[in-house]
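Tokens for chain A. Residues wanted.
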């Protein structure tokens, strides 16, 4: 993340793999880098979400308010439910799990990078791989992640149009402007999230270097607010795009 990648050749030493061609690209080990830090942190976000659900859900009850964990889950559920209903109307049910998953993943992805990691990365004993220290940043600072999320939004956006309107929906794309729209919407989704969270990461890094005690705390609190806001914006725009296609007006 933030431009630091680990080539496939660091982990796979078989020349038949690292020197092979993939989609016409030679030497996959140097051209097709694997962002191992992004993968590990993305998996960590998904693991935290699943672990939290596995711990809280079995203890939920329909009688009484339950505990704090139940209140948090119910609050998130109600928030996303209202968001989906507001943008999609009665068509929301098939898309609710997707919007919930996108919101939670982006939220956890934004939060996992918040911390004084830059300080710890400079300490002796921090994990290294072939001379590159393991970088703890939000996976949403990696364009591969944000572009992947935006691509999912685009595919669902297009699929929902055919689901709601049938083959006649294809007539809409006889207009060249709609093709341009298919590029602009996912591009803005991916770039907005990546650039905002990357700016937050850089701001925190500068704060830690300049004032290593008090200032970074305020910066991290601001980052948490921005992280929530960006998760909401990503889920909201995805809901709006889907809502526009399933609308019959």
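Reply:
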């Amino acid at each position: 993340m933030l431009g630091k990648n680990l080539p496939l050749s660091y982990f796979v030493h078989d020349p038949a793999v690292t020197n092979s061609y993939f989609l016409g690209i030679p030497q996959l080990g140097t051209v097709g880098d694997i962002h191992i830090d992004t993968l590990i942190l993305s998996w960590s976000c998904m693991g935290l979400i699943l672990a939290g659900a596995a711990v809280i859900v079995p203890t939920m009850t329909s009688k009484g308010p339950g505990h704090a964990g139940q209140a948090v889950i119910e609050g998130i559920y109600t928030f996303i439910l209202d968001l989906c209903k507001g943008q999609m109307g009665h068509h929301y049910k098939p898309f609710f799990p997707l919007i919930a998953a996108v919101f939670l993943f982006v939220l956890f992805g934004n939060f996992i990078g918040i911390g004084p990691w830059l300080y710890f990365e400079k300490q002796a004993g921090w994990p290294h791989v072939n001379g590159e220290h393991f970088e703890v940043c939000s996976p949403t600072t990696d364009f591969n992640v944000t572009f992947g999320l935006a691509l999912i939004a685009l595919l669902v956006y297009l699929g929902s149009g055919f689901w709601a309107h049938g083959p006649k929906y294809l007539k809409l794309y006889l207009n060249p402007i709609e093709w341009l729209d298919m590029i602009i919407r996912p591009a803005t989704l991916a770039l907005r999230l990546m650039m905002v969270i990357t700016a937050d990461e850089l701001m925190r890094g500068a704060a830690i270097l300049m004032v290593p005690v008090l200032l970074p705390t305020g910066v991290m609190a601001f980052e948490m607010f921005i992280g929530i806001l960006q998760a909401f914006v990503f889920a909201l725009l995805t809901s709006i795009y889907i809502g526009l296609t399933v609308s019959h007006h």
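The longest strand covers residues 128-129. The chain is about 65% helix and 0% strand.
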